């Protein structure tokens, strides 16, 4: 069995006049999160962790913030794409663990509901999702929401799924086969498992 680990981080400023959506859950609050999309800081961190686990770029490379298609978009769309990427690469989620950091609103009253919603979006059991809420003591970030996520994946059906994908390709020689394998799993690949063109990273992720 093959396992992969992924890590994601995101932060968004609070902003008046927009609804607050965290983990795909609409939350009653006097401010929402600023962003090109719905600003769902938790789903963005989870999306990046999933993409990172299969070396498929990051949320900004799939959904550039200058693309009008993603203006106000529900972040569950981004998450769904990341789930397609890991499935195509031959992996499934073992568990995810997250930390949400914000001064307000308090997460504890909705923690159970939030965990169930995230599990539903990921297609896993609530017991496979960890959500821990912290306040930003000493960070000076009382008007910011921060999320961290770690994810563990395991291969769907035995080891070396990526290698078998390469082997099943029409590669006539060992050299050609190596080129296919490198294209799939090499450090310099610029295609995701689904063949989407990706950049190595995007430093201007405003999603
Ligand atoms: Mg974001």
| Major beta-sheet overview | 5 strands, mixed
Contiguous low-pLDDT stretches (5 residues minimum) are: 184-189
Distance between the termini: 34 Å
Strand content: 25-35%
Number of strands: 7
The CATH superfamily is known as 2-C-methyl-D-erythritol 2,4-cyclodiphosphate synthase
In the CATH hierarchy, the third-tier topology is known as 60s Ribosomal Protein L30, Chain: A
Name the shape in a single word: globular
Number of domains: 1
Using the 3D structure, state the CATH architecture: 2-Layer Sandwich
Overall pLDDT: 85
Question: How are the strands ordered across the major sheet?
Answer: 4-1-7-5-6
What's the Cα radius of gyration? 18 Å
Share of helix, binned: 25-40%
Please name the defining characteristics of this protein.
about 210 residues, alpha+beta, 60s Ribosomal Protein L30, Chain: A, five-stranded mixed sheet, two-stranded antiparallel sheet, 6 helices, 7 strands, about 30% helix, binds magnesium ion
What do these coordinates show?
There is one protein chain. By secondary structure, this protein is of the alpha+beta class. The protein is built from six helices and seven strands; from the N terminus they run ββββαααβαββαα. The strands form two sheets. It has a five-stranded mixed beta sheet. A two-stranded antiparallel sheet has the order 2-3. The chain is globular and about 60 Å long. 35% of the residues are buried. The structure holds magnesium ion. Residues 10, 12, 35, 41, 44, 207 line the site of magnesium ion.
């Amino acid at each position: 069995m093959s396992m992969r680990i992924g890590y994601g981080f995101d932060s968004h400023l609070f902003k008046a006049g927009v609804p607050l959506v965290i983990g795909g859950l609409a939350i009653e609050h006097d401010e929402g999160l600023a962003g090109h999309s719905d600003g769902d800081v938790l789903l963005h961190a989870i999306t990046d962790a999933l993409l990172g686990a299969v070396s498929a770029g990051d949320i900004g490379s799939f959904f550039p913030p200058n693309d009008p298609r993603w203006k106000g978009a529900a972040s569950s769309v981004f998450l769904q794409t990341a789930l397609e990427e890991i499935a195509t690469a031959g992996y499934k989620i073992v568990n995810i663990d997250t930390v949400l950091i914000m001064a307000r609103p308090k997460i504890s009253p909705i923690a159970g509901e939030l965990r169930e919603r995230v599990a539903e979006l990921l297609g896993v059991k609530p017991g496979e999702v960890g959500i821990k809420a912290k306040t930003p003591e000493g960070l000076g970030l009382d008007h910011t929401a921060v999320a961290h996520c770690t994810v563990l994946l395991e291969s769907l059906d035995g080891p070396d799924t990526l290698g078998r994908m390469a082997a099943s390709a029409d590669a006539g020689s060992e050299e050609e086969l190596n080129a296919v394998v490198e294209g799939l799993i090499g450090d310099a690949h610029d295609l995701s498992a689904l063949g989407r063109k990706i950049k190595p990273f995007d430093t201007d992720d405003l999603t």
